[in-house]
Amino acid sequence: MRSGLLCGEKTVDLEFPDSVKLLEMKPLEPLPDPTGAVRRALTKPIESPPLKELAGGKKDACVVISDITRPVPNKVILPPLLEALLKSGLSKDNITILIAAGMHRPNLGEELEYLVGREIMDHYNIVNHYCRKPEEYRKIDEIDGAPIEINNHYLDADLKILTGLIEPHFYAGYSGGRKAILPGISSFETMKFMHSYKMMEHPKVTNCLLEGNPFHEYGIRVTELTGADFILNVVINKEREIAGVFAGHYNHAHLAGCDMVYKHSTVPLDHRFDMVVTSGGGYPLDATFYQISKALICARDILKKGGTIVVTCECREGLGSPEFCGIMRSVCSPQEFFDGYCECAQNIYQVLDYAGEVFIHSPGLSHEDVQKMGAIKIDDAQDTVNRLLQSDPITAVVPEGPYVVGMVK
Predict the structure, then answer these.
(1) Does pLDDT of 124 surpass 70?
(2) N vs C: which end of the chain shows fewer Cβ within 10 Å?
(3) Is residue 147 over pLDDT 70?
């Protein structure tokens, strides 16, 4: 069996014996006319008046979009959405596009053009969310003593619209919907609470689970507080073509998309594996090692305690933010991390603590950085896999990484 594991914009092609279990997304046919599908969704949304009707009489609008770490087809979904707003009477000067950067760096210049296209970049006011600039947000509530602070551009808008991609998410159950607000346009202090050790340790903070998931439930609560007049979310197939469009009510439309993702991205399993060979999900998701925690958690969830993980990830931007780099370069073992830190990198160290060995094939990471975190950097993935298969015969291969979720009964 031959399989191409995603790594940046390429694949790492590996051969496996036929006894290895291949976990893949179920086939999803792309929509023949995605632009037309978006237009139809805007005029016949789920549990909501049409967008043009909602926008009528509004003085301004804020449209939240994902940053460059998410493969959202903005160049397809934004033009019809903006067109509907213009037809409702809003002017381009009264529409703000807000990039939900979370804790990530801003998207500027060529990166911004890649994100939205030249036409939108040149004719609309586009702003990045900065989670560490107090002048960018204000407090609207508290949860368990933690401040809920949200971007001012969004809070002050007369019409509030969320866009994004629905896919499995190892904290929120699914991405999209309410997640554009929390953590997308929240302050650093708010995100510290949402990514706290207590939150991450909750048994229902996991992939493809919404009921009883506090991460999801807090997201809904904050969305209700801030308001969200309309969402436009999509589901994509493994070729990253649009396979479903879900627009309308911030919760009902999102749930409809989650149902589609569950049917096509989860794989029922009878047992755990000695070894899981996976990927970070390819570019843009694997641009930094910070995001590889998603793939590692998915691998851990189907791995026997003490088992082996092999992951391919490009990491063209290295480890990640300065704070993340500082943690990863200052900690020598999972126990040292747990003794000194409660946030940010905890998922990675939880996996390192659970697994026997973690092998990382990554052209963007140094041997020193990988060794420092307690993993093993490999250059020849095929040779490593061949050797490991001799002692880990019960193996699963997940070429798309975190986009596929194994569900052990």
Answers:
(1) yes
(2) C
(3) yes
If pLDDT is split at 50, 70 and 90, which confidence band does 346 have? confident
Choosing from 104, 153, 216, 249, which is the catalytic residue? 104
CATH class, domain 2-24+270-408, is alpha beta
Q: Does the domain at residues 34-264 carry the CATH identifier 3.40.50.11440?
A: yes
Query: What is the Cα–Cα distance from 317 to 315, expressed in whole angstroms?
Result: 5
DSSP state of 186: B
Q: Of 153, 169, 264, 361, which is the active-site residue? A: 169
- For the CA atoms of 383, 384, 385, 387, the dihedral, rounded to the nearest 10 degrees, stands at 90
pLDDT at 409: 87
Helix (H, G, I), strand (E, B) or coil at 370: helix
**Partners of 357 in beta bridges:** 308
**Predicted structure pTM score:** 0.89
Question: What is the C-alpha R_g of the chain?
Answer: 21
d(CA 147, CA 367): 39
- What is the distance between the alpha carbons of residues 46 and 212, in angstroms, rounded to a whole number? 24
Domain locations in the chain as residue ranges: 2-24+270-408, 34-264
**Distance between CA atoms of residues 209 and 172, nearest Å:** 8
pLDDT value of residue 338: 44
Report pLDDT for 349: 83
- List for the chain the helix, strand, coil content (%; round to 5): 40, 25, 35
